Amino acid sequence: MDDTHRAEFRELLAQHRESVLRARQRSDEDLSDLASARSAATADDEHDPEGATLSDEWSRLAGLDAEAERELIAIDEAFARLDNDTYGVCAGCGKRIPVARLRIRPTATMCVECASRR
């Protein structure tokens, strides 16, 4: 990978990291608000006629937080691959991952063909 593409992907990964961190902060704030609501609510939120229960919302937000954590790990791993010159090399077949794929999914570790076999 040439220096121009390397710089482009560093910037893409940095932007993606910031976006994930902002989303994670929002979900953490929502979880905090929900924790307050749960402590103020009745113990029987499973029969709330207003729609989704507090428990359902808690599960949804916790899932978003876990997904953000996985994405941050993938971003950090992509930065490490950039540093050791393995970024853009398919972990499945060893061929170059097309730049177009990396622009769409900068944390990709496999080419489309290998990823589709998974």
How would you describe this structure to a colleague?
Helix 1 runs antiparallel to helix 2. The protein is about 70% helix and about 0% strand. The longest helix has about 40 residues. It contains four helices and no strands. The model has no long low-confidence stretch (mean pLDDT about 90). It is elongated and about 55 Å long. The chain has about 120 residues and is mainly α. It has one domain.
Task: Provide the fold topology.
Layout: H1 3-40, H2 54-83, H3 99-104, H4 112-117
Share of helix, binned: 55-70%
Number of domains: 1
Poorly predicted regions are none
Shape type: elongated
Q: Provide the β-strand percentage band.
A: under 5%
Distance between the termini: 25 Å
Total strand count, please? 0
Largest sheet report = none
- Which structural class do you get from the secondary structure elements? mainly alpha
State the helix count.
4
Rg is 20 Å
- Average pLDDT metric: 89
Order of helices and strands: HHHH
Brief digest:
The protein has one domain. The chain is 68% helix and 0% strand.
Question: What labels would you give this structure?
Answer:
118 residues; mainly alpha; Znf_DskA_TraR; DnaK suppressor protein; zinc ion binding; zinc; zinc-finger
